[in-house]
C-alpha cells in the first residue's frame, strides 16, 4: 500500500515537473506596424530559453510583404524584400546575407510543418526596424528601412553547420552568503601556461574569467573551446591589444567586434564583458564599448615581477569578499602562482567564481559602458 502511494506521488511530481518545462518557452505576440499577426492555425511564435523571439518564418514574412520561397532540394528558404534578400537554411544555425554568413543563436527548425526562425537578425538583415519588449512578450516589426548592414561572419563554424544542443555555462550553485573572489586572466589564450592554469582550476573545481585577444583565439582554438567547456567565462580584451583611447570610433568598435566574432565563431558563446587593454578608457571608449567594462581592484603586477611568490603574496595579503584580481595567463610564473593561490584561497573559505557570477551574486546588474573595479560590499 505504501508503495502504491509513493508511486502516485512520484507520478504527480513527474507530471508537475514536465508542465514546468513546457512553460519554459513563453508565448509571444508579433506586431507589424502595430497590428498583431493572427497565427490562427499551425505553429505559434514563442520565446526561446535564451530569450530570443522565434517565429513561423513564412506566415510572418508574408505579412511583412516579403517573398518567401522554399527549395526542397537544398532545404533553404529564400526571402526577398525590395532590394534585399537572404537565405535561411533549415536545421542550421546561420543565415546567408548577400553571400555572407551570419551566425544565429538559435537553430532554424521545422515545427508542425512551419520553419521557426530566430527573427531579429532576419529583420535586421532586411534593413528594417524591430523591437522586442521582453517584459510584455511583444515583438514589434516595422516596415521601415533603417538599418545599415551588419558586420557578417563569413566562415561558418562546425557547430553552426551541424548544431547540437549546447549546455548552458552558468553554474547553478547557490552563492548566497559565500565569500567570493573572481580571478581574471588576460592576454591569452596562448599555450602551455594557459593549459597549466586550466588544469589547476579544474582540479580545484574553481572558475575564472579569461579576457582574450581575438587574434589569439584563432591561433589557439582548442584552448578557447576547452575554456568554455570547463565552465569558465570567456570575455573580450580587444582584438590586438591596442590602446583603445588612441583609436578612432570605427577602429575602436572593430577591435571589440572582431573579438566578439572570433570567440562566438569558435565557441558558440558570445562574451558579455570587456576589459580594455592597459585599463585605458575615456568617454568615447565607454560610449562605444557596447559591453560592461571590467577593471580590477587587486593588481598582482605579475607581468612586471614575473615572480610566482610575489604574485601569490599580492593576493593573499589583501584579498576580500567581492574582489576582482588581475593576472596574465601568458606567463609561466603566473601559472606557478595559480598552483598555490587557488587551493590557498579555497582553504581560506573563498569560492572562486567568474566575474558575471560574482556580479550576479552581489546583486549588481552589469550595464554596457559602465566601469566596474570590484563587487566588495
Ligand atoms: Ni592586456
What does this structure look like?
- This protein has 377 residues and is of the alpha/beta class.
- The protein is built from 13 helices and 22 strands.
- It has helices at 2-23, 57-63, 119-125, 158-161, 192-203, 214-219, 221-229, 249-267, 283-289, 302-305, 308-316, 332-347, 355-361; strands spanning 26-27, 29-32, 35-36, 46-47, 53-56, 67-71, 76-81, 84-89, 94-97, 100-103, 109-111, 114-118, 128-133, 138-145, 179-186, 209-212, 233-236, 293-294, 298-299, 323-328, 350-352, 371-372.
- Strands 15, 16, 17, 19, 20 and 21 form a six-stranded parallel β-sheet that branches. It has a five-stranded antiparallel β-sheet with strand order 1-4-5-12-11. A five-stranded antiparallel β-sheet has the order 6-7-8-9-10, covered by helices on one side.
- Helix 5 runs parallel beside helix 12, helix 8 packs parallel to helix 9 and helix 11 packs parallel to helix 12.
- The longest helix is centred in the N-terminal third of the chain and has 22 residues, at 2-23.
- The protein is globular.
- The N and C termini lie far apart (55 Å).
- Residues 17-24 and 165-170 have low confidence and may be disordered.
- The chain binds nickel (II) ion (NI).
- Nickel (II) ion is lined by residues 186-187, 237, 241, 277.
Amino acid at each position: 500500500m505504501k508503495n502504491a502511494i509513493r508511486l502516485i506521488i512520484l507520478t504527480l511530481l513527474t507530471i508537475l515537473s514536465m508542465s514546468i518545462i513546457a512553460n519554459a518557452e513563453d508565448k509571444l505576440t508579433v506586431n507589424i506596424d502595430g497590428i498583431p499577426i493572427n497565427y490562427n492555425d499551425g505553429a505559434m511564435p514563442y520565446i526561446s530559453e535564451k530569450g530570443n523571439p522565434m517565429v513561423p518564418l513564412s506566415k510572418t514574412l508574408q505579412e511583412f510583404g516579403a517573398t518567401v520561397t522554399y527549395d526542397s532540394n537544398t532545404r533553404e528558404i529564400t526571402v526577398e524584400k525590395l532590394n534585399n534578400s537572404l537565405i535561411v537554411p533549415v536545421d542550421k544555425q546561420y543565415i546567408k546575407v548577400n553571400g555572407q554568413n551570419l551566425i544565429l543563436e538559435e537553430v532554424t527548425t521545422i515545427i508542425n510543418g512551419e520553419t521557426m526562425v530566430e527573427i531579429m537578425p532576419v529583420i535586421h538583415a532586411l534593413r528594417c526596424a524591430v523591437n522586442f519588449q521582453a517584459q510584455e512578450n511583444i515583438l514589434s516589426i516595422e516596415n521601415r528601412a533603417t538599418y545599415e548592414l551588419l558586420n557578417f561572419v563569413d566562415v561558418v563554424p562546425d557547430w553552426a553547420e551541424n548544431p547540437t544542443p549546447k549546455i548552458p555555462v552558468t553554474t547553478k550553485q547557490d552563492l548566497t552568503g559565500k565569500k567570493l573572489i573572481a580571478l581574471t586572466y588576460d592576454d591569452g589564450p596562448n599555450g602551455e601556461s594557459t593549459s597549466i592554469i586550466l588544469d589547476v582550476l579544474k582540479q580545484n573545481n574553481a572558475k575564472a574569467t579569461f579576457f582574450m585577444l581575438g587574434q589569439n583565439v584563432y591561433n589557439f582554438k582548442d584552448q578557447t573551446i576547452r575554456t568554455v567547456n570547463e565552465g569558465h567565462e570567456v570575455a573580450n580584451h580587444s582584438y590586438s591589444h591596442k590602446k583603445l583611447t588612441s583609436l578612432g570610433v570605427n577602429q575602436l568598435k572593430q577591435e571589440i567586434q572582431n573579438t566578439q566574432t572570433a570567440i562566438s565563431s569558435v565557441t558558440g558563446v558570445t562574451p558579455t564583458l570587456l576589459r580594455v587593454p592597459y585599463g585605458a578608457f575615456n568617454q568615447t571608449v565607454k560610449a562605444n564599448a557596447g559591453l560592461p567594462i571590467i577593471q580590477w581592484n587587486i593588481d598582482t603586477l605579475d607581468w612586471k615581477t614575473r615572480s610566482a611568490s610575489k604574485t601569490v603574496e599580492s593576493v593573499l595579503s589583501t584579498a576580500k569578499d567581492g574582489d576582482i584580481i588581475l593576472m596574465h595567463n601568458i606567463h609561466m610564473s603566473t601559472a606557478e602562482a595559480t598552483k598555490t593561490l587557488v587551493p590557498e584561497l579555497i582553504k581560506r573559505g573563498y569560492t572562486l567564481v567568474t566575474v558575471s557570477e560574482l556580479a550576479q551574486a552581489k546583486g549588481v546588474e552589469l550595464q554596457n559602458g559602465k566601469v566596474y573595479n570590484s563587487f566588495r560590499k
